[in-house]
Write a structure and sequence with these properties.
Elements lengths: L1 H87 L5 H96 L1
Helix pairs in contact: 1-2
Protein name: GTPase IMAP family member 8-like protein
């Protein structure tokens, strides 16, 4: 009768220990899935941000080229008109020609300055975009390190719980063996 009760208790203790191990394993699996999901979402967000940044870069380059082409065409059209006028008037006076040449050089310099300003503005925007990309990558790295650290802490906590459960189980088993030895010893003495 006593042995049946002891077997029942031992079986129940083993079932409890197995159930705790299953719970710990389930928690471990949930943490792993959560970590992988967060990493995937972070990568997806970074790729989307990179795609948008690339599209914006292409758009800015196209706008810059269009502005440059427009300035050149306007200048060429204006020059053709002036040239035609100069030819029609048969270059009336040398002073007028001198003034026209000066005006031509002034407009040429103005156009060069405009194009240079556009180029500097474009390079500034590119530099800002690179800095933003660098910051996003650094943030991604930090987030990844943070999640890795949190996952390692969670795994360490689970291992600690497993070790505690193992120690508790070993202690119960040791006590049971000692009680069994004591009972056998008492039985022999009687």
């Amino acid at each position: 009768m006593f042995e049946e009760a002891e077997m029942s208790i031992r079986k129940r203790m083993e079932e409890i220990m197995k159930e705790r191990e299953r719970e710990i394993q389930t928690q471990h699996e949930k943490l792993r899935v959560k970590y992988e999901t967060e990493i995937a979402e972070l990568k997806k967000r970074l790729e989307e941000e990179k795609r948008k940044a690339d599209e914006e870069k292409i758009q800015r380059e196209n706008e810059f080229r269009q502005k440059e082409d427009k300035l050149k065409k306007e200048f060429e059209k204006k020059e053709r008109t002036k040239q035609k006028k100069r030819e029609t008037e048969n270059q009336k006076r040398s002073e007028e020609e001198k003034q026209q040449r000066a005006e031509y050089h002034r407009e040429m310099e103005e156009m060069k300055r405009e194009i240079e300003n556009q180029r500097l503005q474009f390079e500034k925007q590119q530099k800002q975009r690179k800095e933003e990309d660098k910051k996003r990558k650094e943030k991604y790295r930090q987030d990844q390190e943070k999640m890795k650290h949190e996952n390692e802490c969670a795994m360490a906590e689970l291992k600690k719980k497993q070790d505690e459960e193992t120690k508790k189980r070993d202690l119960v088993e040791k006590r049971r063996n000692e009680e069994e030895k004591e009972r056998l010893r008492d039985g022999k003495e009687k």
